[in-house]
């Protein structure tokens, strides 16, 4: 157990350091701007490029794994959307953001550092694939649902073009696509560039986790929305169980790939839920509360999942 705590607590410790600093240190939120830019445009892209570029190209085209994990996430999104529509009395924009809370794992800020730290280098490819295709799903589904609801005043054709542009130009996706191309041509960067990429990717996890904590602290929750508990249950309990069940049913995956997918699904709601809520000016308080409560509860659930994986308590083959 000490080994599991030694692995999990540093991740959550950095988040709660950020949470404490955000609560008690009076620095304007604008002070996060350059750090956020560094994380989104430099550190995390360097991490994803390095992960993918060093992987044999044949491992990057595992279609059955991509379909199984993305479909499981989409099913959790659909269930969360149904819960939101029921409890928010048919309000589609609010239910859509609630569905993001219930299905979108923190695959960008927490995912890579935790899976690689817990499972080793073998987790790099499934981590990158889950990140890319989960992001593609949410970057597509949310704008389309907002357009259907009337919250986004653009025509459907304009929304589709916007979705395509955001997907193709997002720095995480660009870095991953470049990494795939580098793996295909077996590109080896010069030593100086490779060293700089190492510096950048090593900074990604601590900076991202600290920023996550500060960001949550700066968005206090006045009261918890009634649908947040079932959404958190879907995210932290049903999502990993569903992905495990689907991968076991399909079969043929390496144990480290199954463990990576289950661990990624166990992560708390992504901060993107709050960012999307602010973008569409809907369900802001619910999204903030969902991210905060989900992160706190996940200290227990993620630690338990790490313990189960480390002690072979989860069937992976």
Rg (CA only): 19 Å
SSE order in H/E notation? Answer: HHHHHHHHHHHHH
Q: State the low-pLDDT regions, or none.
A: none
Percentage of β-strand residues: under 5%
Helical amount: over 70%
Main sheet attributes: strand count, strand direction, barrel closure? none
Structural shape? globular
Number of DSSP E strands = 0
Mean pLDDT, nearest integer? 86
First-last Cα distance: 24 Å
Count of DSSP-assigned helices: 13
Structural class: mainly alpha
Question: How would you summarize this macromolecular structure in one to three sentences?
Answer:
This protein has 317 residues and is mainly α. The protein contains 13 helices and no strands.
Detailed description of the structure:
- Helices cover 76% and strands 0% of the residues.
- Helix 2 (33-53) packs across helix 9, helix 3 (63-87) packs across helix 4 and helix 10 runs antiparallel to helix 11.
- It is globular and about 50 Å long.
- By secondary structure, it is mostly helical.
């Amino acid at each position: 157990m000490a080994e599991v705590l030694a692995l999990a607590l540093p991740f959550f410790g950095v988040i709660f350091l950020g949470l404490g600093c955000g609560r008690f240190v009076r620095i304007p939120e604008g002070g996060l701007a350059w750090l956020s830019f560094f994380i989104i445009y430099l550190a995390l892209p360097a991490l994803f490029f390095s992960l993918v570029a060093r992987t044999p190209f044949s491992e990057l085209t595992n279609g059955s794994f991509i379909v199984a994990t993305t479909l499981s996430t989409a099913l959790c999104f659909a269930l969360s959307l149904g819960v939101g529509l029921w409890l928010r009395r048919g309000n589609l924009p609010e239910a859509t953001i609630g569905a993001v809370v219930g299905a979108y794992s923190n695959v960008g800020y927490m995912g890579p550092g935790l899976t690689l730290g817990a499972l080793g280098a073998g987790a790099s490819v499934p981590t990158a694939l889950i990140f890319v295709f989960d992001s593609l799903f949410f970057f597509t589904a949310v704008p389309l649902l907002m357009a259907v609801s009337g919250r986004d005043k653009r025509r459907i054709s304009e929304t589709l073009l916007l979705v395509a542009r955001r997907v193709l130009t997002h720095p995480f996706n660009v870095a991953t696509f470049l990494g795939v191309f580098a793996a295909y041509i077996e590109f080896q960067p010069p030593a100086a560039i490779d060293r700089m990429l190492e510096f950048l990717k090593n900074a990604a996890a601590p900076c991202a986790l600290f920023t996550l904590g500060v960001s949550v602290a700066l968005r206090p929750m006045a009261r918890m929305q009634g649908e947040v508990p079932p959404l958190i249950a879907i995210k932290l309990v049903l999502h990993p169980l569903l992905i495990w069940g689907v991968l076991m049913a399909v079969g043929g995956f390496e144990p480290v790939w199954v463990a990576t997918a289950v661990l990624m699904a166990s992560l708390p709601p992504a901060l993107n839920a709050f960012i999307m809520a602010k973008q569409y000016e809907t369900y802001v308080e619910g999204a903030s509360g969902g991210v905060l409560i989900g992160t706190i509860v996940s200290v227990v659930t993620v630690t338990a999942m790490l313990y189960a994986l480390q002690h072979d308590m989860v069937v992976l083959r």
